[in-house]
Sequence to fold (178 residues):
Amino acid sequence: GESIAAVVRTPLEIDANGAVSGRPEPVIFGARADVLIAPAGDSLVAVDLRGIERTAEPAMDMTRELAWIELDHAPAAVVGDAEAVAAHLDRGAIYHSAEMLGGAETVMQLAVDYAKEREQFGRPIGSFQAVKHLCVDMLLEAQSAVSAARHVAAAFDAAEPDRCADLALAQAYCSDAY
Fold:
């Protein structure tokens, strides 16, 4: 709890001395992170960010701080091999799927709450059949996304052979639901 780590999926360039260079996509919590975990070649590296200037990036989502991190021959420690890089990218995709399903559930709940409150012709719009159908469709999409995300997390936890195909399916389904 004393340090904050940020992760990226964009690979950095690594030189013969183990130093890394590059500018990954805006990094979530990159402005306050102490360490950056990133793929670099066939290695997973950790870069000490203390002392590296970072530029905050305004985001539409005010709950998510973003920052640009420009690395120019920054010292890095190798923390994993090519297998660790693959696991890092897979975990990121699993977490992103779960995040999308959380957003879908939240938006669905906001829409249902609004349908209960908003009135038209003297009654809540949620009492109209067409609006009910749309709310049920959102519920089905969100619940199916929950199933897909839970399944893929369990598949990776159990190292099931079809887990990568399951991950692609979960990403697609959670993205559509979101």
Summary: The chain has a mean pLDDT of 92. The longest strand covers residues 71-80.
